[in-house]
Amino acid sequence: MNNNYFEILRAGINTTFQDKGRNHLFHIGIPFSGAMDNRNFYLANKLVGNKLDSPIIEFAYQGPLLKFYGDKISIAITGDVIFKLKKKDIEIEGKCYESYQLEHGDKIDILSTNKSVYGYLAISGKFDVKFQWGSCSINTKAKIGSNEGKKLANGQKINISRIKLNQDKKKINYLNSRIENIRVIKAPNFNYFSEESKKDFFEKKFTVSKLSDRMGMRLEGLKIENIVNTNIKSEGLLKGVIQVPADGNPIIMLSDHGTIGGYPKIGVVASVDYDRLVQITPGSKIKFKEIELSDAETLFKLYEMETQNLISQI
């Protein structure tokens, strides 16, 4: 059978194609995008025998309900996710970080992420997706990427252009750790804020707003007082930078962030904490901890080594 595809019976809340993202396009206003949680993105691909940067399906909160048509295929789901496999009259409780084989007519029901935000679905093959500027990653704000820059919708077909013949069962024992203390480096505009606010920024907790999305994580609670200027000349932004608009509520720039911005920046989230930062659910409390740039570099290198070690175990 040559026609291999998934039918989307329920699309979920925010289901998109993602890969590693786009490089070297900031000068024309295009951010990296790509998978929010890189470690779980890599592990999903490794579990089905793909190249680590292969396109996957990323979902948030409630995932999709998919029906498979075609030849046998392996799938794997990573993250902290509750899902079921429906094979004829049998229903199987799925386990993350373990590959499963689907046959013609089987269904995957990704019910929800469990006290986290993002999960990932990879297949032992290749999704038939279009690439734009070297990536399939969907940025719904800019309407770029595969699927015309839109999230996946009910009734759509997800075509599969190739299925791998080697579909050995694979698994890894891995537990996602949650994080509350986010390590941060001081940003260039740190001294725009009052001494009390700078102290409070590292000593008191913030609440993650329900308005958070792939573009930014909005924080509520403590107001950060600007004593210099609430606006600056627009400057380049990067993933993890923390802007403070005039209302005093910080915003952490995430993977689909704008490439320039005119709000003063108080800090930058250390890259080592980014994967776990994006998994923090609205309503959760977070606290910032100051570290030096040299420490952030060392910690990120250790995190990358740990990720590579996990990949090598599969």
The first-to-last residue Cα distance is: 30 Å
- State the major sheet: 7 strands, antiparallel
Number of strands: 21
Compressed to H and E, one letter per element, the order equals EEHEEEEEEEEEEEHEEEEEEEHEH
What's the alpha carbon Rg, rounded to whole Å? 20 Å
Low-pLDDT regions: none
What proportion of the residues form beta strands (DSSP E)? 25-35%
Compute the number of structural domains.
Answer: 2
What strand line-up does the widest sheet have?
A: 7-6-9-4-1-12-11
The amount of helix comes to: 10-25%
Rough shape?
elongated
Structural class: alpha+beta
Number of helices: 4
Q: Overall mean pLDDT score?
A: 96
What attributes characterize this protein structure?
314 residues; alpha+beta
Q: Could you describe the 3D structure shown?
A:
The protein has two domains: 4-163, no CATH class; 181-312, Cyclophilin (Beta Barrel), CATH 2.40.100. The protein is built from four helices and 21 strands. It has helices spanning 38-47, 195-203, 274-277, 293-312, and strands at residues 4-10, 16-18, 56-60, 65-69, 73-78, 81-87, 90-93, 99-102, 107-113, 118-123, 125-127, 157-163, 181-186, 205-208, 216-220, 235-236, 241-243, 251-253, 260-261, 265-269, 285-290. It is elongated, with a radius of gyration of 20 Å.
